[in-house]
């Protein structure tokens, strides 16, 4: 098993030249403004992921309003959840060009607009566009920056910070379920969505709190991390050297491009200084040209970083363990989403509505989910514990619960399984940590964008698939069995690929010794 980036994946930088220099840590790394970033991310998870976990309430309202099949109606929730995650790689491009703060503020406006427009829906297909696509894209533009910023601001307590911030999903699922129930009962589902849209404008405030770190601070953070991992085992040293050489080759043209860009801006500044006697209109034109040039350079640099991460010499897809991680993500998320969307219907089918109204099963998942994220984060930050091992154990527990849930037909049995689902699904707080260990801080935005895109595909097809199976069999049992088996396939990929990756350098070293 693996414990660090050197063990799991690749090291994207050579710190041998800078390791000897004493680095004064930034007070905002692991402290100071970093905790405001955690608060911002926490609120984002409440307003976005918490709201999506409570969509089972609106799903029942839509079934009654539009009289469509369960499979078709479930597409509304699935589109919203799926698109939030699927747009991850493209949001990574926005972050590279505009930064996390601007991306999140624009996303907050789009998300609120999607909720408000959905209040005027005349059919399910209208909701596909307004709630599924518009609100989904807006959610994705806020969610990815919220995760990436926590990764940038924390070094020693990354798992705990991610755990605390992502507990917002559990709090949000609990609060939003109660809020949407109340709003739908008192004002109807249309007014409930309108009010929720107004509440979602607070995402813009969360985005404004995402103050970016300077490039110097990010370099210092990376050097500190490299020093702390110096004495750890490097099982994949051959792969690391290969990727380093790729990155060095990729950085040479980038440096040349930066020099050319500086020359262009320097020429513009020289013209501007030398032309002080020119007319006001000419000076305005020069300033406008300078602004456009700076914007163009920023866009080009952002696109170059985004493109190199996916298709360049240092492509993330050359990391085999990361590819296995993507395959796992394709199957995993639907197993968590399906219970949230269809549990209200399952409770109704088993005639357990009276007990569920006292304490909803989805609320049990949400509350225990909070403790799961924090506890798993604390355990993973212990020096003697591998984050990778904790991640895998939580996955095994969750897939067991998914396969067991259809066997429970009493409220107590369902409540116990839901509690275990909530706790084990706390591994979501470890996903950004594992991703950062795989690829490094520099590539975190693009890499995590790919992972949540795979999660989004899983969330997109999972609930409609479960609804389609129900329409055929009049049972949800097969939906959970198939989802659990596919989830198990993803976990097997996580187990097999690191073993292959670890074995290759050993084989090569044996061959070299024989020569």
TrEMBL record:
Domain Major facilitator superfamily (MFS) profile positions: 37-502
Pfam family for this entry, one: MFS_1
InterPro entries found in the cross-reference section: MFS (IPR011701), MFS_dom (IPR020846), MFS_trans_sf (IPR036259), Proton-linked_MCT (IPR050327)
Protein location: Membrane
A single MF term (Gene Ontology): monocarboxylic acid transmembrane transporter activity
Keyword check for Transmembrane helix: yes
Main location: membrane
Keywords noted in UniProt: Membrane, Transmembrane, Transmembrane helix
Transmembrane intervals: 33-55, 75-95, 102-120, 126-148, 160-180, 192-210, 321-341, 361-379, 386-405, 411-434, 446-466, 478-496
Topology in membrane: Multi-pass membrane protein
PANTHER family, per database record: MONOCARBOXYLATE TRANSPORTER, MONOCARBOXYLATE TRANSPORTER 14
Protein name (Swiss-Prot/TrEMBL): MOT14 protein
Gene: Slc16a14
